[in-house]
Design brief:
alpha+beta; Rossmann fold; Dna Ligase, domain 1; five-stranded parallel beta sheet; five-stranded antiparallel beta sheet; 13 helices; 29% helix; globular; binds glycine; ATP-binding; EC 6.3.4.13; ATP binding
Length: 422
């Protein structure tokens, strides 16, 4: 099978590496890719938000399967265009991608499916903001205000704060920019990312993972697109993972089918394990970044065959997935100033080692690898347990040089020390 991957992050680099292990994958291409993916896939520079451009490229290179990584092309309907060209595509239709693209749609689906999620309210009129803030957060009994951009914001549109002025300022800035604001009640408890390969009502869960959204150690500082992740979760009882699939993901998949918005692709449930059980923080319509880097490092089954089965409606016929023993830890190396406007153009050394996945990188004319984005690299360490995987990941990241860069040093630490319980 000839596979075209769409995207340019470390998630797409991880997808390519896992696809390369599948004996049925004979050729790999990526658009637009980065300096790291260029070494393992044919690279194409097209506008990945244009369905027409992606379908044309897929036809030109004879792709049998297109895998769309990021949410923006999915929400814009690129998967629809690829399918209309008669090519199998892993990724939901524009209609089904609203589960991520519109938080109001997601809340409506969850309500109809009877799935636990945070209480929420959309505010689109600044005159109603203060009264709405009073219905959420302290002193109303909740631990914090949760203020979100109702549209796509690459994880950075969320502010969780106990300071009403901070919550108000974030909401007001979103409203000033013409973005509706979603206020939510705060869900307490450790977070879980559960990725499920979905084809209509067939749901195949991958290993559960946890990501780290704040920029600083001990979950301090602003939200980012994700600073690290680990899998599996030694503290998550198997019956809770089963409940997430049976009581949350399957009912949501069935509700999407019932509405005529059947989902085919990767349904990502972001959850909090509260004292009353799992509750949904958000759904995404694609693989998460950086959790994918950890999850796929442990996948033993052939990824191309799995994603092709979902894309062609044969997922239910696949044998159960096989996983490698042990654990995987991903640590993100970010550019100076990220998540604000990152410094770019710095030379990176040590980025060609095994286990280093590229994201915001480009190759300069003189051959040097330079930074060109906020999350520059992901390093992935594996080991027999979380402590060993952490040691491998941190040894690797210490061997890379990028002026001004920063990373969290506590990815997976609380879990490795047995400090998380549900
Ligand atoms: N890990 C967060 C995300 O992919 O949205």
């Amino acid at each position: 099978m000839r596979v075209l991957v769409i995207g340019s992050g470390a998630r797409e680099h991880a997808l390519l590496l896992a696809l390369r292990r599948d004996p049925e994958v004979e050729a790999l291409a990526i658009a637009p890719g980065n300096a790291g993916t260029a070494a393992i896939a044919q690279q194409h520079d097209v506008d990945i938000t244009s369905g027409e451009a992606v379908a044309k490229l897929a036809r030109q290179i004879g792709a049998d399967l297109v895998i769309i990584g990021p949410e923006v092309p999915l929400v814009l309907g690129v998967a629809d265009a690829v399918r209309a060209a008669g090519i199998a595509c892993f990724g939901p239709t524009r209609d089904a991608a609203r589960i991520e693209g519109s938080k109001a749609f997601a809340k409506d689906v969850m309500a109809a499916a009877g799935v636990r999620t945070a209480r929420s309210e959309i505010v689109d009129n600044p005159a109603r903001l203060d009264a709405a803030l009073d219905r959420f957060g302290p002193p109303g009994g909740e631990a914090a205000w949760v203020v979100k951009d109702d549209g796509l914001a690459a994880g950075k549109g969320v502010v969780v704060t106990t300071d009403r002025d901070v919550a108000r300022a974030h909401a007001a800035s979103l409203l000033d920019a013409g973005h509706p604001v979603l206020l939510e009640s705060f869900l307490d408890g450790p977070e879980v990312s559960l990725f499920c390969v979905v084809d209509g009502e067939t749901v195949v869960p991958l290993l559960a993972a946890q990501d780290f959204k704040r920029v600083g150690n001990n979950d301090t500082g602003p939200n980012t697109g994700g600073m690290g992740a680990y899998a599996p979760l030694p503290w998550l009882p198997a019956d809770v993972a089963d409940r997430i699939v049976d009581e949350i993901v399957k009912p949501v998949a069935a509700e999407l089918v019932r509405r005529g918005s059947s989902f085919s692709g990767l349904l990502y449930a972001g959850l909090a394990i509260t004292s009353q059980g799992p509750a949904v923080v958000e759904f995404n319509c694609r693989f998460g970044d950086p959790e994918t880097q950890s999850v796929l490092a442990l996948l033993d089954s052939p990824l191309g065959q799995l994603l092709r089965a979902a894309a062609t409606g044969t997922l239910a016929q696949l044998p159960p997935l096989k996983w490698r023993d042990g654990a995987a830890v991903t640590v993100v190396l970010a550019a100076e100033n990220y998540p604000s406007r990152p410094r770019v153009g710095d030379v990176i050394t040590g980025s060609e080692a095994d286990g280093v996945l590229h994201a915001g990188t480009a190759r300069r004319d003189d051959g040097a690898v330079v930074s060109c984005g906020g999350r520059v690299l992901s390093v992935v360490g594996t080991g027999s347990d979380l402590a060993a995987a952490r040691a491998a990941a941190y040894a690797l990241i210490e061997s890379i040089r990028l002026p001004g860069s920063h990373f969290r040093s506590d990815i997976g630490l609380a879990a490795a020390e047995g400090r998380i319980s549900v």
